[in-house]
């Protein structure tokens, strides 16, 4: 059997042919990611995307090199990653090599190589800069998890330094609710992933990811603050559709927080004061909001427990890809939890979340 190449061996000829002349530093909490590339256009796009986080100075640095090129053919015996529940497309293939992992995006041809402190993106990066953004953010997520945090599938907002983690089953509208709450002078913490860690005094810190919310037309049309993300032609076209169709459209917009809500409203970390679990459905029943005890309602935990995914480098191959329910319960302890059930009502849910946060702050 032919031995597999190393990441270093794969990348050596690519780096030789692609001079790395452009650089960007972005800082997430204590971590500075140093992004290097052969493409000024890519660095410019990433600088615009990460404009709230530009600059160095983090106590920890992570290098990421992004090579703009055609889709690479590494001729590797990839395995296809199976679809997640509720997903329809096969999106990724991967293979573990002696010094890390190679992941290939099936739809775009982009390849990501990472391991032992090296991180590379190779392929049509400019056209698929959102995938490069996700790769960069995953380096930060991995750092937080290896420092002891647990991963939550959730959005997050904060008021007066206290944060709410907003979780929900697939398609529940976590980001839509977070953006509705943002209309009440709160701070945005994260869109879809949150890392939660315990402090020495027993309090919890929630750390977000520098990922702009991706919102569908229904969310935009129902939140006046999001008006900048949609042009007039799209507004006219989508306003003519029945409301039920709007929420299921695959069309997405990046909602930049500073454009929609003003500067200084996107922070990545704060104390975690409460957890919200969305369990509602699209019907005409009244929305309800009630405090619950997670130890008695383990059925809600699947809403926020999250597998670490393909872009995590395990130090121990036997390590589970998702922490146990008991690990999450031990972390959260007696943290207040609010279950939102009944019919979908984002305005009323935002009011309930703000009242919940005010109650647990007092």
From TrEMBL:
Molecular functions (GO terms): kinase activity
Sorted UniProt keywords: Kinase, Transferase
Keyword Aminoacyl-tRNA synthetase: no
Top-level taxon: Bacteria
Organism, scientific name: Solidesulfovibrio fructosivorans JJ]
Name of the protein described by the UniProt record: HPr kinase
InterPro entries documented for this protein: HprK-rel_B, P-loop_NTPase
């Amino acid at each position: 059997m032919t031995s597999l190449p190393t990441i270093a061996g794969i990348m050596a000829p690519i780096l030789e042919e692609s001079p790395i002349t452009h650089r960007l530093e972005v800082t997430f909490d204590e971590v500075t990611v140093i992004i290097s590339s052969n493409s000024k256009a890519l660095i410019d796009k990433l600088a615009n995307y990460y404009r709230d986080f530009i600059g160095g100075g983090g106590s920890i640095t992570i290098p990421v090199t992004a090579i703009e090129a055609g889709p690479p053919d590494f001729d590797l015996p990839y395995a296809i990653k199976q679809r997640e529940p509720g997903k329809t497309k096969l999106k990724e293939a991967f293979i573990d090599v002696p010094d890390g992992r190679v992941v290939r995006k099936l739809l775009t041809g982009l390849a990501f190589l990472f391991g032992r402190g090296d991180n590379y993106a190779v392929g049509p990066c400019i056209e698929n800069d959102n995938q490069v953004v996700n790769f960069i953010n995953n380096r930060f997520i991995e750092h937080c998890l290896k420092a002891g945090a647990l991963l939550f599938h959730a959005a997050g907002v904060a008021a007066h330094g206290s944060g709410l983690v907003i979780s929900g089953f697939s398609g529940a509208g976590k980001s839509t609710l977070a953006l509705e709450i943002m209309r009440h002078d709160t701070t945005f913490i994260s869109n879809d992933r949150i890392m939660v860690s315990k402090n020495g005094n027993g309090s919890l810190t929630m750390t977000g990811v520098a990922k702009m919310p991706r919102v569908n037309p229904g969310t935009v049309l129902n939140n006046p603050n999001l008006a900048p993300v949609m042009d007039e032609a799209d507004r006219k076209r989508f306003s003519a559709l029945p409301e039920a169709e709007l929420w299921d459209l695959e069309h997405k917009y990046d909602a930049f927080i500073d454009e929609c809500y003003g500067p200084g409203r996107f922070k990545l970390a704060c104390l975690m004061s409460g957890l919200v679990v969305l369990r509602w459905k699209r019907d005409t029943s009244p929305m309800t909001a009630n405090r619950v005890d997670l130890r008695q309602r383990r059925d809600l935990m699947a809403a926020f427990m999250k597998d670490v995914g393909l872009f995590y480098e395990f130090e121990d191959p036997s390590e589970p890809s998702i922490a146990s329910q008991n690990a999450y319960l031990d972390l959260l302890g007696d943290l207040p939890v609010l279950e939102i059930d009944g019919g979908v009502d984002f305005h009323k849910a935002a009011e309930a979340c703000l009242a919940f946060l005010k109650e647990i702050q007092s």
